[in-house]
Amino acid sequence: MKIRIEIFFVIMMFFFCWVVLFTRFPFWWKAIGISLYAGIILYSVAELWLQNRPVPKTLLWTCLLILVPVLGYIFYIYTGQLLFKGALFKSKRLSDRQLLEALRKSERPLEVLSMLNDQQRCFAGYLDRVTLTDQNQNTRTKILKNGEATFQEMKQRLKEAKDFIHLEYYIFRFDRLGQELMEILSDKVKEGVEVRLIYDAFGSFSISEQDRRKMAESGIQLHPFLPLKTAWFTQKFNFRNHRKIIVIDGKIGFVGGMNVGVEYLGEDNKIGFWCDTHVLLEGEAVQTLHAVFLLDWKYVCGEKLFENHRYLQSVPADGDGLVHVVATGPETRDMSDHYYAMISCATESVWIATPYFIPNQAIMTALRVAAKKGIQVRLMVPVDGDMASIGTANLDLRSFHLNFEVNLFLTATDSIYDLVTHFEEDLKECRRIRPVEFYKRGLDVKWKESFARLFSGVL
């Protein structure tokens, strides 16, 4: 209802501007148009002030609404009102909470918690209190560095599927790699394996209608997440599904930073080598990862697969430490809270490897305080060498507030040492920027940074 009113306001504002600027109507007609236009702006400003946002943001949007005719109001509707995200995804939030709470076990791995050191126990205790998912002890993880290792392992595991394959991707290209995976999936359908795919409507925009029809005809069930045709009229186009998930037979899971496209194999000459990380999961944590997919599947098509217990059967595996699958999105707690807690629990080092570093004020404060405490802070997310997070969320405001994300939080697992090793290997390919060099960067760079900072809330 609210968005309909706002669209009506936009149409009326355009009409009033046309009357005032491009017609020869009598003065009193134009006076009415100006008065009504001003009334819409004043109504919007009053509504903005009642939301009690931070003062700088309130002043920024107030100036934009008043000083930029029509376009300022449109920009406010589609970016400045993202705080209404809770209402947009209210039904999803409620249904997700019900299932995740039902899956939680009454018993916690207290024997493992007692074996953790202070900082590990600090962070594990935080996650246990604030998330709706379990920290799993009986889970094995394997770090897959870069595209070649990831997709080689992925193809092998897909070919071994016996019951079902569920995939969820932000970007799924129908290039050479995408077609290879589709051939494997089509063959598995012929063997009687159920195959379902969720793709983000924006991230996978390159998938043509012919490609979708080809996949559907091969027996693959697929649905887009938040189709763009309707999302433009519901403010939802700005909220994207950034998750990358594969679940095979409820026993094997894949999650991490890589989408499906040849660029992740380094075969795009414009991009060059792509450095990214994925994780292979076996054991109880796969059930939680699968629950994230099943909830998204219900959201995109209404089918409640989780009512069939075979999709949520837990298959334990020998593991070490704790593995915690945490899904975040505009309907849940921000991922930035978890990153902040992890940084705050650090006592020795904070190492960050991310393609997008657009932190909010809380993360900046946590990093600054950590450095002042003598903790080694490297920006390039293993922490202290015994806690780590890996997944789909970048260290930017879109991942924190707008995108649907899923991350693994690892505590005292052997895989963390693999992440540390990979970080140190990647560090050899980097050039350190010292404070003096940073402060002396060119004016053109400073202008670009300052301009980009204005849009940090939607980057």
Provide the descriptors you would attach to this structure in a database record.
459 residues, single chain, Endonuclease, Chain A, globular, 48% helix, 16% strand, 14 strands, 7-stranded mixed beta sheet, alpha+beta, 2 domains
Structure description:
48% of the residues lie in helices and 16% in strands. The protein is an alpha+beta fold. It has two domains: 2-80, no CATH class; 90-427, Endonuclease Chain A (Endonuclease, Chain A), CATH 3.30.870.10. It has a seven-stranded mixed sheet, with helices on both faces. Helix 11 (209-217) links the parallel strand 4 (194-200) and strand 5 (221-225).
Sequence stretches where pLDDT stays below 50 over 5 or more residues:
none
Q: How does CATH name the architecture of the largest domain?
A: 2-Layer Sandwich
Our measurement of the CA-to-CA distance between the termini, rounded to an integer number of angstroms, reads: 28 Å
Strand order of the largest sheet: 2-8-7-6-3-4-5
Range of strand content? 15-25%
Indicate the radius of gyration in whole angstroms. Answer: 24 Å
Q: Count the helices. How many? A: 19
Helix share of residues? 40-55%
CATH superfamily of the largest domain: Endonuclease Chain A
Judging from the principal axes of the Cα atoms, what is the shape? globular
Give the CATH topology of the largest domain: Endonuclease, Chain A
The CATH C-level name of the largest domain is Alpha Beta
Please tell me the overall pLDDT.
85
Strand pairing plus helix content: what structural class?
alpha+beta
Please indicate the count of domains. 2
Largest sheet: 7 strands, mixed
Topology, number of strands: 14
